[in-house]
Design brief:
Layout: H1 2-29, H2 31-38, H3 46-64, H4 69-75, H5 78-93, H6 100-146, H7 149-192, E1 195-204, E2 210-218, H8 221-226, H9 230-233, H10 238-241, H11 250-260, E3 264-272, E4 275-285, E5 290-296, H12 298-334, E6 338-346, E7 352-360, H13 365-368, H14 372-375, H15 380-383, H16 392-402, E8 406-414, E9 417-428, E10 431-438, H17 440-470, E11 472-478, E12 484-486, H18 488-493, H19 517-530, E13 537-541, E14 547-559, E15 562-571, H20 575-603, E16 605-611, E17 617-619, H21 621-626, H22 638-642, H23 650-663, E18 669-674, E19 680-692, E20 695-704, H24 706-739, H25 741-757, H26 764-792, E21 801-804, H27 805-815, H28 817-823, E22 826-829, E23 834-837, H29 839-855, E24 864-873, E25 887-895, H30 927-937, E26 941-946, E27 952-959
Parallel strand pairs: 22-24
Antiparallel strand pairs: 1-2, 1-5, 3-4, 4-5, 6-7, 6-10, 8-9, 9-10, 11-12, 11-15, 13-14, 14-15, 16-17, 16-20, 18-19, 19-20, 21-23, 24-25, 25-27, 26-27
Helix pairs in contact: 1-3, 1-6, 2-5, 3-5, 5-6, 12-24, 12-26, 17-20, 25-26, 27-29, 29-30
Length: 960
């Protein structure tokens, strides 16, 4: 029926074309048309249009009848007839130059020819129309013979279509349900995911190359992280919305992902509203585009940065810890003190009955003969029974009970000899730290000093009486600024009562006789320049106007680090009195020399005089002893003394002599000597140049510093050992902070891969073991991170700044928001103070304490936390710790959790101490140790109180 319809349509087209041909030929019969042709001029195109129309109609008929040979046969002469018709019409249009009669006859003949041609064309047209009518008739008969099948066929097709429709509808419906479920699931995933999920389709240029991607879908995380409305960015190119994707080769990776159908990962940092964010992106190829899943990894990147900082702090803290340990060990080794730590032993009435030795250094061995490791953990009554035979036990128990330190001195028998020891006891926890040192030599020196003071008081009394009797005065004159002090009798020589006016070099001039002022000025100039003067007397005028002749004798010395001239003045008005006074003065100088000799022996100092330019020297008695000889055992000289100088130091020794001689200035220098007994000693020498008996003399002292040099060598050796230990610790820190975590990360990575690919193939028992491996790796990672956190908390205070604890608490709440919401915890806090500290450490402190309260909650009970703060004076704090500030902030965090026994209140702050099995509660046992270290780093104190089943209270004090 479709074919018949097409045949009818084709026949109609042929009939229309024949009709057009008929109209075309009929137009040639029209007299009006022929008259128009006769009027043709150069601008008339009617005939050309007519010819073209005939050619077009003929061409159309040929195309329509090319499948019909009979019609093609009839059309064969048609082209010739049309050409003849067009030629005859063109001939009719010509105007030959004949008479009107000739023209009429000619036109008549031409019209006759035209009509004959039109006749032949109509015959052919009629034949063609007759054949087309016959074709339509045959088609109608065939249509009538087939049309009765159409309803049946249509009904059958309709039924078949209905069946197909029902089946298709059911399948489509099921697919639609599944698609709707998938869409709902996908929407829920996209709504709840924390990742940015976008879908892009490529944009091509004319060469079919990808020049951009258009955003087809974007989820709500674009708004959360990037501040972009998903509705506004869809249907826009990524070059406009995400221009950073066109940089650093990322766009090429997107194109490669789509074309190669391979997944691509990107790790990038972008800036959003001034904040830098890190994203890890996974690009997945799809059929028509690519799907980009971007995860916000900013916290991880920051954690990495913080981890690097914490690693560095751990290294620094470990180095400092090693320094402190080495320093403490060096102290215990270098000091002569015996350091002990005792713990109280109490009876049922809480009375102290004894002490337990917890620590004692090796300085106890020379005293008692015991080794420290043999007496540690033993009772004091067993090792030092004499303590209980005296009042010392009462001193020690009093320190523990009152907390007030005490000191005492006690004798002790060592190898049959009685020696004195000084001890100081300080409370430490429920015990004491006892520091003891031998003071036998000090007590002997003290007794000597007491005797010496008695002698000096006697001598001063005698000297004062001698001045009064001999009319002598003494003075001390400081050469740097002219200050002076004179004895009481000097005042009396001047006619004044003692200490009635202040004396100086200039103020004293008022007493000098005017005629002797020049002599007095020369005395001052020479003394300042050379330390002594040739002037030995002048006259003075007393307050009463009496003129007295005085003589003076002085010498230069260093007093309290200042150059001074010390001497005596004698009223020589009467020669006899002058003689007596000189004798008294010599006696006084002898006594002073005796005192100086004793002082040299005690301080291991020797004095000397060298007459510059000669070989002559003078040595004090103690200098002889320093050389291993008795006083005056040999006649000293530079040559003789040079034999004592160590051969390796002779060059330095001679250079110092030469330099001092040339510059007349002595600089402190050191060299070694070999004593008579072969002992090597280190001497430190210093001195000055003075005038003595009109000769240039170098006066100086030499001090035996052998013990100091030995101590310096020991310190240098200790420093070398410390450097070696530091290198080892640095290597250990690298292992702890990097190498130890690397295999752990790989272990977790392989665990993750096995879990994602092989978990379904494991047996039930294998899954249990595999889960234990996963939990163990997680605990190990948490343990390493907590250890690093603990060790990186240093005690430096340069980075302390003002911290608002309200802001710290708010940030901790935000960090723990998920846990708080899951548990429904209620956290109430007062207005917290602002204090100096380290921000991240205080955040760690609050985070650990609040996390513990949420973790150790009572089942089926909503956690409740109360945070209180108050300012207290140091004297109001009953807890015993070293208080560096006058006032503290007392901060208390109270919870309603499971609590713990009071006996564990100190144990919980120790590293790796847990009160519960890891199967009951997760954790590493370091959290509260970190809290304690943070509080102590802030010079504070933390403790806890609790009762099982009734919650806990954590209290810490921080300096205000």
């Amino acid at each position: 029926m479709q074919d018949l319809a097409e045949k009818v349509a084709h026949t109609l087209q042929v009939n229309n074309a024949i009709s057009e041909l008929s109209a075309h030929s009929t137009q040639a019969e029209s007299e009006e048309f022929r008259n128009q042709l006769q009027k043709i001029d150069g601008t008339n195109t009617i005939f050309e249009d007519y010819v073209k129309e005939g050619e077009t109609i003929l061409h159309t008929l040929k195309d329509l009848t090319k499948e019909n040979p009979s019609q093609q046969t009839r059309l064969a002469p048609m082209e010739t007839l049309l050409d003849s018709l067009h030629a005859e019409l063109r001939s009719l249009a010509n105007h030959p130059g004949n008479t009107r009669i000739d023209i009429g006859e000619s036109q008549l003949s031409k019209k006759t020819n035209i009509n004959f041609t039109l006749y032949r064309i109509r015959n052919i047209r009629n034949q063609m129309l007759a054949e087309e009518r016959l074709s339509i008739k045959n088609t109608r008969e065939e249509y009538d013979s087939n049309k009765y099948l159409a309803p049946f066929t249509s009904l059958l097709l309709a039924f078949f279509a209905l069946v197909i429709f029902v089946l298709a509808f059911l399948k489509i419906y099921r697919n639609k349900v599944r698609i709707r479920q998938s869409e709902n699931f996908l929407r829920s995933v996209l709504a709840t995911t924390d990742n940015i999920v976008n879908y892009y389709e490529p944009i091509y240029d004319e060469q079919k190359a990808i020049i951009d991607f258009i955003i087809i879908f974007a989820n709500e995380c674009n708004r959360d992280y990037l501040g972009l409305d998903p509705e506004h960015i869809m249907d826009k190119p990524i070059s406009e919305v995400f221009p950073f994707l066109m940089l650093n080769g990322e766009f090429e990776k997107l194109v490669s992902c789509f074309q190669q159908k391979e997944k691509v990962t990107l790790d990038r940092q972008i800036s959003v509203q001034g904040e830098k964010l890190w994203f890890k992106s996974l690009i997945t190829p799809l059929a028509q585009g690519i799907m980009v899943t971007a995860r916000n990894s900013t916290a991880e990147e920051k954690a990495k940065e913080e981890q690097l900082l914490l690693n560095q702090r751990l290294e620094d803290q470990n180095l400092k810890l090693l320094d402190n340990r080495a320093f403490l060990n060096n102290i215990f080794k270098s000091i002569s003190h015996v350091v002990m730590n005792f713990e109280s032993i109490r009876n049922e009435k809480d009375e102290i009955t004894d002490f337990k030795i917890l620590f004692i250094n090796d300085k106890i061995t020379p005293i008692t003969g015991d080794l420290p490791e043999d007496i540690i953990n033993k009772k004091v009554s067993e090792i030092f029974p004499t303590i209980y035979e005296s009042e010392i036990f009462g001193y020690l128990t009093g320190v523990v009970q009152t907390g007030n330190p005490t000191s005492y001195e006690v004798p002790y028998e060592v190898e049959g000899a009685s020696k004195w020891f000084s001890a100081r006891a300080i409370k430490l926890g429920d015990g004491i730290t006892l520091t003891t040192r031998e003071i036998t030599e000090e007590k002997e020196k003290t007794d000597q000093l007491l005797q010496l003071n008695v002698q000096l008081e006697t001598q001063n009394s005698i000297f004062i009486d001698a001045e009064n009797v001999a009319n002598i005065g003494s003075y001390i004159w400081y050469l740097d600024n002219g200050e002076a002090s004179i004895s009481d009798n000097f005042y009396r020589i001047l006619g004044y009562e003692p200490n009635t006016f202040k004396v100086s070099y200039d103020s004293y001039k008022q007493f000098v006789h005017p005629e002797d002022l020049e002599t007095y000025n020369r005395l001052g100039t020479e003394t300042i320049e050379h330390g002594t003067s040739q002037v030995n007397g002048y006259r003075i005028i007393t307050k009463q106007g009496d003129v007295k002749h005085i003589e003076l004798n002085g010498r230069a010395l260093i007093r309290h680090g200042r150059k001074a001239s010390v001497g005596v003045v004698v009223d020589v008005t009467e020669e006899k009195q002058n003689s007596d006074r000189v004798v008294s003065l010599n006696q006084e100088l002898s006594i002073q020399n005796s005192i100086l000799t004793d002082a040299e022996r005690i301080a291991k100092i020797g004095s000397f005089l060298w007459y510059v330019g000669t070989d002559e020297i003078e040595l004090s008695d103690n200098f002889y002893r320093m050389l291993g000889h008795e006083p005056k055992a040999f006649k000293p000289s530079l040559k003789e003394y040079g034999e004592f100088v160590h051969p390796e130091d002779l060059k330095t020794y001679h250079q110092s002599i030469e330099k001092s001689t040339n510059e007349l200035n002595v600089t402190e220098h050191r060299y070694r000597i070999i004593t008579k007994t072969g002992e090597i000693k280190h001497l430190k020498v210093n001195g000055q140049f003075i005038q003595k008996n009109n000769k240039q003399v170098m006066s100086g002292v030499a001090q035996d510093i052998s013990l100091s040099i030995e101590a310096e060598e020991q310190l240098r050796a200790s420093n070398m050992e410390l450097q070696h230990s530091n290198a080892e610790l640095e290597s250990f820190n690298r292992v702890a902070s990097h190498d130890l975590q690397e295999p752990l990360r790989k272990t977790q990575m392989f665990i993750s891969r096995i879990e994602s690919t092989e978990a379904e193939h494991l047996s039930e028992k294998g899954r249990v073991y595999f889960k234990k491996v996963v939990n163990a790796a997680s605990r190990m990672q948490a343990l390493v991170l907590n250890l690093l956190t603990y060790s990186r908390i240093d005690s430096k205070h340069e980075d302390f700044e003002l911290i608002d604890l309200n802001q710290v608490l708010q940030k901790v709440k935000e960090d723990l928001s998920t846990n708080i919401e899951n548990t429904g915890a209620n956290i109430k806090s007062e207005n917290l103070p602002t204090l100096k500290g380290v921000s991240y450490q205080l955040e760690q402190l609050f985070n650990n304490l609040i996390s513990n309260a949420l973790k150790y909650k009572v089942a089926d009970v909503t956690p409740s936390l109360t945070i209180q703060a108050e300012k207290v004076h140091a004297k109001q704090i009953p807890e015993d710790f070293f208080k560096m500030a006058n006032t503290y902030y007392k901060i208390t965090i109270i919870d309603n959790g499971i609590g713990f026994s009071t006996e564990h209140s100190e144990k919980i702050f120790e590293v790796f101490q847990r009160l519960h099995q890891k199967s009951e509660y997760t954790g590493t046992g370091i959290g509260l140790a970190i809290c304690k270290k943070i509080v102590e780093n802030h010079r504070g104190f933390i403790y806890a109180t609790s009762e099982l089943g009734k919650g806990s209270a954590f209290i810490f004090y921080l300096p205000a």
